[in-house]
Write a structure and sequence with these properties.
The complex is a heterodimer of chains A (about 230) and B (about 425). Helices cover about 35% and strands about 20% of the residues of chain A. With about 230 residues, chain A is α/β, with parallel strands linked by helices. Chain A has one domain: Rossmann fold (3-Layer(aba) Sandwich). In chain A, helix 3 packs parallel to helix 5 and helix 5 packs parallel to helix 6. The longest helix of chain A is centred in the C-terminal third of the chain and has 17 residues. Chain A is globular. Chain B is an alpha+beta fold. Helix content of chain B is about 55%, strand content about 15%. A six-stranded mixed β-barrel of chain B has the order 3-4-9-6-8-7. A two-stranded antiparallel ribbon of chain B has the order 2-10. The longest helix of chain B has about 45 residues. Chain B is elongated. The chains are: A alpha/beta (about 230), B alpha+beta (about 425). Chains A and B meet through helix 2 and helix 3 of A and helix 1, helix 9, helix 10 and helix 12 of B.
């Protein structure tokens, strides 16, 4: 499902681009596999997810997702790939404030699966699935943080995404809510035979996924300031 | 949800900024509409009135003053002409129609115009009767009058009612009321949309009689005697229609040389007045209005730019959900279009609605009968130009949005 080979990122951008590179280790994830991406802060865990989502391009190497080599896609192609294949869940939920829960999910479907007609009913189903059937018309500021993350999960799985990319999805939650959200993520991934790649600092949660991938093995050298800037997603 | 629906929701979400932005565009476009409609309508009305007559003949003085006083019932006539001058003109084979008028009195500021019954035979330039009776009949005897349509509304007078005229052409507190000469309303004219709606028409003889009597009375009081029993009878102006308008300049020149008066070509005087006096004022107003619109467009640009900056995270989220660059740029662009369109449409309604509300007052004070809901041709051009400005103001934030890469903005917090 996901395959990274010889991926290298040039440090710095534009005029500040240097001859120094990050080299990412080879990475594979099969369909339905759940992988914890671990490592110290700033080591490039989020960068890995961004590469897979097509939010960032590799300067060299191969990033293949669902059989598509992302280097062959243009900007719009990458956006469509992301909308169709990837469901993203963020630490800060990333919901759209003017819209209700059901609209947030439906908007994801609109751009993801590009199906408008059934978007609302599918969004409603997804919210029922994550236990928010009675909060459809609530706006983000009317939801608890746990509920917001559930909406984000509903948005990620409402379409036909085959990969769930979760960037510290429990990082802003209290332990009890974090467990609920984590369990929910695993459940919805299993239901759709989706690949779940989850960045986490919590070893206990990482241990409950099928395997861990230690992203701290990334090789970097050169000016620390440039390296730090390049690591910032 | 469509891009349009999303744009609308974002505008609703920050409703105060939206309201203020739309209000600024509304005010700008309303100002433009008002100025353009007033210009168009005043041009049309002035030309319509002026085109009725080929020549206006009157006492020596300013031709513009002669036209304003006789055709538009503003200003005082520059002087009088002997009635024989009218009779001479009427006999001239080049004259198709001529009618004298005598001024001197008013009712509540509405001028009492003495004339002759055939004045109402005047045809407009399409060959249709210019005057039509709404009710009653034309005057047949001295001190019978027909009211212009606006006079009837303003004074509440009806057919059969009587009133007294007051000396002078404008209403002055304590003015001399001719209480010995009651006028009786014989009819009321249908609206013409011209200054004639504000006038009262009676016989020239009644105007003469009142003032001859008054002069005799004044002479008696002052201990002087009138030189003759019957003083020379005069007219304030003579309206002339020629057999062909091509004779205007020739006739005007001839009258100036061969009589004690002057002949003005109304349409020429009004065009000169419009270009020399009204035009610069209108252009200044238009410049102010254009500046207001420019400020409004800058407001759109600023609003959208700020909204885009504040929404960098939202735009990045949409990109992470699969929205392509063009779609998020379209979202910002459509927001600009909604703001601009709403502002222009509301401005159009406000401008025309305001004119509709003010049209009675404008007619009362200037005699200008407006068609407040009629679009002026230049207004369409102005509206399209304003829309184009709005589009341009919306394009820049949209381009900025198009160029952004979402990855950095995804880290922004609410």
């Amino acid at each position: 499902m996901v395959r990274l080979r010889d991926v290298r990122l040039r440090l710095g951008e534009g005029d500040r681009a240097s001859s120094l590179w990050f080299r990412l280790p080879a990475f594979d994830a099969a369909a339905g596999e759940t992988v914890a991406i671990t490592g110290p802060s700033g080591c490039g865990k989020s960068t890995l997810l961004n590469l897979i989502a097509g939010l960032r391009r590799a300067d060299e190497g191969e990033v293949t997702v669902a059989g598509v080599d992302l280097s062959t896609l243009g900007s719009a192609g990458l956006d469509r790939h992301r909308g169709a294949q990837c469901g993203m869940v963020f630490q800060t939920f990333q919901l759209l404030a003017p819209f209700t829960a059901v609209e947030n999910v439906a908007i994801g479907l609109r751009f993801g699966s590009r199906s408008r007609g059934s978007a609302r009913s599918r969004a409603t189903d997804a919210l029922h699935r994550v236990g928010l059937g009675d909060r459809l018309r609530a706006r983000p500021d009317q939801l608890s943080v746990g509920e917001r993350q559930r909406v984000a999960i509903a948005r990620a799985v409402a379409g036909e995404a085959s990969i769930l990319l979760a960037d510290e999805p429990t990082g802003s939650l209290d332990p009890a809510t974090a467990r609920e959200v984590f369990d929910l993520l695993r459940e919805v991934a299993a239901e759709g035979n989706r690949t779940l790649l989850m960045v986490t600092h919590d070893p206990a949660l990482a241990a409950r996924l099928s395997r861990s991938f230690d992203a701290s093995g990334l090789i970097a050298s050169g000016d620390p300031a440039i390296i730090e800037e390049a690591r910032t997603p | 949800m469509s891009i349009l629906g999303m744009a609308w929701r974002y505008l609703r979400f920050r409703w105060l900024v939206t309201l203020l932005t739309v209000a600024s565009i509304t005010l700008g476009s309303a100002l433009v509409c008002t100025v353009l409609v007033l210009r168009h309508e005043s041009d049309q009305a002035l030309s319509r009135d002026a085109a009725l007559y080929d020549l206006v003949v009157g006492g020596k003085g300013s031709p513009l003053q002669l036209v304003l006083s006789s055709v538009y019932h503003v200003d005082s006539p520059p002087g009088n002409l002997a009635y024989e001058e009218y009779e001479r003109l009427r006999r001239d084979p080049r004259v198709a129609w001529a009618a004298p008028i005598g001024l001197g009195d008013n009712l509540a500021g509405h001028r009492i115009v003495g004339t002759e019954p055939h004045f109402f035979d005047l045809l407009d330039r399409n060959g249709d009767p210019f005057f039509r009776l709404d009710r009653g009949r034309l005057f047949e005897d001295r001190f019978e009058v027909v009211l212009g349509s606006h006079v009837a509304v303003a004074t509440g007078l009806e057919v059969g009612d009587t009133f007294f005229g007051t000396h002078g052409l404008i209403e002055v507190p304590g003015g001399e009321v001719h209480r010995d000469f009651p006028y009786r309303v014989s009819g009321i004219l249908a609206p013409t949309g011209t200054a004639q709606d504000r006038a009262i028409f009676g016989t020239l003889e009644s105007v003469w009689e009142i003032h001859e009597t008054e002069e005799r009375l004044h002479s008696a009081i002052q201990g002087t005697a009138m030189l003759a029993n019957r003083p020379e009878r005069e007219t304030s102006a003579i309206f002339v229609r020629l057999e062909t308008p091509g004779l205007r300049l020739w006739m005007a020149d001839e009258i100036r040389k061969q009589s004690d008066g002057i002949a003005a070509i109304p349409i020429n005087e009004i065009l000169r007045f419009q270009r020399g006096v009204v035009g610069p004022v209108q252009r200044s107003l238009l410049a102010v209005a254009a500046a207001v619109v420019a400020v409004a467009c800058l407001t759109v640009l600023t609003t959208l730019h700020q909204a885009t900056e504040r929404r960098r995270r939202d735009i990045a989220i949409l990109r992470s959900l699969g929205a392509v660059r063009g779609e998020v740029a379209a979202l910002v662009f459509v927001e600009g279009l909604i703001l601009t369109t709403a502002g222009i449409v509301l401005g159009l309604l406000l401008g025309h609605g305001g004119l509709a509300l003010a049209s009675d007052t404008i007619r009362d004070t200037t005699g200008l009968a407006l068609h407040p809901w009629r679009l002026a041709p230049s207004e369409l051009i102005a509206l399209v130009s304003m829309a184009a400005c709005g589009v341009i103001a919306s394009v820049f934030p949209a381009i900025s949005c198009y160029r952004r890469t979402p990855i950095a903005d995804l880290q922004l917090t609410d």
